[in-house]
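Risk register update: the risk of archive-format incompatibility is retired. Evidence:
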Amino acid sequence: MKNMTHVAGGKDDFQLVTHLTLTGGQYEIGRALTEEARRLGWSPAPIDPTVGRARRAWFERHWPQHHARMDGAASVLGLDPDQDELALDDQGYVPEGFACSALWIPPSAAADGHGRVGRNYDFFRTTASEMAGAPPRPNELPMASRPYVITTIPDEGPASTVITMSALDGCMDGINSAGLAVMLLIADFESAEPPENFPPQVGVNSVQLPRFLIDTCENAEQAKQALLAAKQYDHGLPLHYLVADAHGQAFVWERGKDGVEHIVEFGDGPLCVTNHLLHRHPDPMNLPADTEASLASYGRLRTLYERSKGVTMSAADVRESLLAVRPAEEPAVPFRTLWSTVFDTAERTLATRFYLGDGGRYTEELVFPAR
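Archived output:
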């Protein structure tokens, strides 16, 4: 079953936010997602048949939920689900140049004993054409102006709620009914080299990775094992991921340019993440000075660390910390915090304020359960 409502924003606001609730089997959920993707203009991309065959086999073995949703996509498109020439997923990618901040507060440092993750999703207000250096097409909207909140309640497996900017088969952040929260952030501006095209490969891409964990894992330890075993690829943008669970465990997953994978943990204490690789700079009190290219990543992390170290924080404190690292609403600053979210891993909720326009215009906090 599919239920779609507009929950925030309007024609005079920067964002118009849609909440999509899907119930049933993964096949039916895949059908509903594909119907919505087609309405938005998506169509399956050609793929090398050898790669397409290997992708389907990998999903069937490691991510059966996604594999079943691809079968649902095939039925909407009138295609044989075993065909190898078209990618029935991969409905979007993460463009170049966004800055985000996140802060994990474990239960031991929370005023009410609830583990929480706060995150700012900072992104440009431009179109995809402008991001590529071209003028906007007629009637083209800014890339992040139509976000979706997607709640899936499958017949089997964890329910979840995610937020996505431009890819219905992935997400930027989300939480499942077991209390596992995952969010992506860019990890290294200086080495980002987006390729000229984005062909699907075997494994999970950078936007699918959070959804992969939310579908298949219930806690941080399971997420570590899934990440270590998974094939992964990005789109030229090094990303890292903050993963936290309802049991008070959290870590950051990173892959360096050399392909080496890193699990960064800070024990039973706050974990701050912005837009530089933590395994290169593990000491938050000994960070380099910011440059124009770093987009204040080091300064934002210092601010979050100084506000959270050695103190007990309430939900309001987490929100105030996010506000402290929100980019200024100035013409010289090309991006804005387009949504600011607090995940409560104990309550299994995602509470978000969406950006409507400058002048501090954000929605009231909207709370979405993951069950």
